[in-house]
Amino acid sequence: MLDAFSRAVVSADASTSVLSGADISSLKGFLAEGNKRLDAVNAIASNASCIVSDAVAGMICENQGLIQAGGNCYPNRRMAACLRDAEIVLRYVTYALLSGDASVLDDRCLNGLKETYAALGVPTTSTVRAVQIMKASSLAHINDSNTEANGGKRFRKMGSPQGDCSALTSEAASYFDRVISALS
């Protein structure tokens, strides 16, 4: 499990060189954007239960057979396992976003996930759809683009720092895409 700093050192060690100016510049940028990164992680973590439950509900709305007798979210214990797994995936995405490196996501979450789901008979197409919904919701929270019209009575604006969050949003999207790719 690495972070942005460890990754830079490991890469330099592998090439038997010192950190280059570009590496140091990249790490300075990582530090300069630290508050935005922490706010993005907080935005996801603070809304994790809603993000996960909305994603699983959306997946089920699109495939009602999942909650019918014999479906993969029937009975309640299977639904609970689905919610748990989605929350674990989201948690590891936030870990990767916080560290600026996908190794924790790959090593602790995605390694063998597709094979495990295949052995358990979990439909990966439905799982991929839930991850896509979590991605859309999480990116909206990072960009603080949720609105009162969409949130209703439970609307809460996170108040992320002002400025361009496009690089951070792109990074977060890449972690979700990594999950989708691992399951496909």
From TrEMBL:
- Coarse class of the protein's main subcellular location: membrane
Entry binding sites for (2R,3E)-phycocyanobilin 2: 72, 77, 82-88
- Record keywords, A-Z: Antenna complex, Bile pigment, Chromophore, Electron transport, Membrane, Photosynthesis, Phycobilisome, Thylakoid, Transport
Pfam families from the UniProt entry: Phycobilisome (PF00502)
Q: Name one GO biological process term.
A: photosynthesis
Q: Which InterPro entries match?
A: Globin-like_sf, Phycobilisome_asu/bsu, Phycobilisome_asu/bsu_sf
The UniProt annotation places (2R,3E)-phycocyanobilin 1 binding at 35, 39, 165
Residues bearing N4-methylasparagine are 72
One cellular component term (GO) for this entry is: plasma membrane-derived thylakoid membrane
Q: How does it sit in the membrane?
A: Peripheral membrane protein
Q: Which residues form the signal peptide?
A: none
Give the location in the cell. Answer: Cellular thylakoid membrane
Similarity annotation: Belongs to the phycobiliprotein family.
Q: What is this protein called?
A: C-phycoerythrin subunit beta
Gene behind the chain = cpeB
